[in-house]
Specification:
Layout lengths: L12 H50 L1 H10 L1 H15 L1 H13 L3 E3 L8 E3 L4 H26 L1 H4 L16 H5 L18 E2 L3 E10 L2 E8 L4 E7 L8 H15 L9 E7 L2 E6 L7 H7 L6 H20 L2 E2 L8 E3 L5 E3 L6 E2 L20 H4 L6 H17 L9 H10 L14 H10 L11 H11 L6
Antiparallel strand pairs: 1-2, 3-4, 4-5, 5-6, 6-8, 7-8, 9-12, 10-11
């Protein structure tokens, strides 16, 4: 064929190429940076979606009801699967055959004088058709699975709190060996005036928490007031929670520090586990913050922060990580001394016996990024939580706020905090920098230890400035 018979270019291709080249020449580096910015934004959004899945994954693995709820609630995944099936049965086969016929044309073999001409399919047409079909259905399965995975937080209920741990159920025989309560007999109700362990008389209820009920009591042998913490009977036969209760008692029993609540006794009575502790009458740090709109005076916040950092440094030196440090777990005496309490989910720094992979432990408003993504909490996690507490002491509000739990967790993971001085300009620059460093997303970027935090806070006290 001559040069004039060459196939013309595909219509519009050259024109489109010229437009693209002109756009590149016009936009130059601004266009490049705009494209990179869009790509980073999309990747950040995808990362946030992936992170949002982590808190729910443990519940899916261990709870069949949660699994069914997920599969029936993943609407976008169901739509993607339905569209993929419809296209795979109608449009895709026709497009596949047209494409392969063009790429792998059949050959013709004719007989004598053109009689008996036969059409022979390309030898690779069958394998290619099978490969394309398998590739398509694999893509449908992959997209559906990915969409279902990313739909997990939405299908499980937006903002629904995730249980800290969901231990596997244990048999009734095993459960009854944890506490000496006969089968079919419920633990008696706690009443004012009842005596626990032939020693402690219950006076009144002080409060309730996830790991027990707390009562004001009297040690009739020594004639002193105590706080009596009782494991609720509803979870008293759960092996993991009973072990966690014992872990808290063991953690506190080894402490002798003026800023950590002291444990006096651990016993079993009335079908429950009880812990006798030091009683603190001054209320919690959380209650103090609620009475001071806009935060505490800077000097008072520094003094409290130094005491708390010293207490946690003492615990860390003995291998204990609190994992749920927050204002509500800080008690205050009438003289203003602070005491760290509620080591109910504390763990030994080198032991993961009570921590499951992917389990989330802590309170979202003060939770470190590594805890929010189900990683193991370390001393650096307590530093982050103390930083969030110090932020609230200085400004009157925690570093992040959101309409639901999942949004709050995502902010801890990916959103940088604003400097506390934005809310309270009187905050010194050194204190501003310390709080921001304590709230760093990466654990290695935070202060090296609680001792360092206590030292830097101590240097900011007015009495240390002279």
């Amino acid at each position: 064929m001559g040069q004039g018979s060459a196939r013309p270019p595909i219509p519009g291709v050259l024109q489109s190429a010229e437009v693209v080249a002109k756009h590149v020449r016009t936009c130059g580096r601004p266009g490049y940076h705009r494209g990179v910015s869009v790509l980073r934004e999309r990747m950040s959004k995808f990362r946030d979606e992936v992170v949002a899945v982590v808190p729910h994954w443990e519940a899916i693995r261990t709870d069949p009801d949660a699994l069914r709820h997920w599969l029936f609630g993943a609407r976008r995944a169901q739509i993607a699967c339905a569209v993929g099936i419809v296209l795979g049965l109608t449009l895709i086969p026709a497009l596949r055959d047209e494409l392969l016929d063009a790429l792998l044309p059949s050959s013709r073999k004719g007989g004598f004088l053109g009689i008996g001409t036969r059409r022979h399919a390309h030898p690779m047409l069958g394998p290619a058709r099978a490969a394309v079909t398998a590739l398509y259905w694999g893509a449908v399965v992959g997209v559906t699975g990915l969409r279902a995975w990313l739909d997990l937080p939405r299908s499980m209920g937006k903002g629904a709190p995730v249980p800290e741990e969901d231990p596997a159920p244990i048999g009734a025989a095993t459960a009854r060996t944890l506490l000496s309560v006969p089968d079919g007999v419920d633990a008696p109700e706690i009443e004012v005036g009842m005596v626990v362990g032939d020693r402690y008389r219950v006076q009144r209820e002080l409060g309730r928490g996830a790991m027990g009920e707390v009562y004001l009591g009297t040690d009739e042998r020594l004639g002193r007031e105590v706080a009596l913490k009782a494991l609720p009977p509803s979870i008293g036969h759960d092996a993991t929670l009973v072990e966690r209760f014992h872990e808290e008692a063991r953690a506190l029993a080894q402490f002798n520090n003026a800023h950590i609540v002291q444990v006096f006794d651990l016993m079993e009575a009335q079908g429950r586990l009880w812990m006798a502790m030091e009683v603190v009458h001054g209320g919690t740090l959380d209650a103090l913050l609620q009475r001071h709109d806009g935060g505490l005076p800077v000097d008072q916040a520094i003094e409290i922060g130094e005491q708390l950092a010293g207490a946690m440094a003492y615990a860390h030196a003995r291998g204990i990580v609190h994992r749920d440090f927050k204002p509500d777990n800080v008690l205050m005496t009438d003289e203003g001394t602070v005491k760290v309490a509620d080591f109910g989910i504390a763990k030994r720094a080198r032991s993961s016996k009570l921590t499951q992979a992917g389990a989330i432990l802590g309170t979202p408003a003060y939770m470190s990024p590594e805890q929010a993504t189900g990683m193991v909490a370390t001393e650096a996690s307590d530093i982050y939580s103390l930083g969030a507490t110090l932020f609230e002491m200085l400004t009157g509000e925690p570093p992040f706020d959101a309409d639901d739990v999942m949004q709050l967790i995502l902010k801890h993971v990916s959103e940088p905090p604003v400097p506390p001085s934005i809310h309270a300009p009187a905050i010194p620059a050194e204190l501003d920098a310390l709080v921001l460093q304590m709230l760093a997303k990466e654990a290695h970027e935070r202060p090296a230890s609680m001792e360092e935090v206590a030292s830097r806070l101590g240097a900011l006290r007015p009495s240390s400035a002279t």
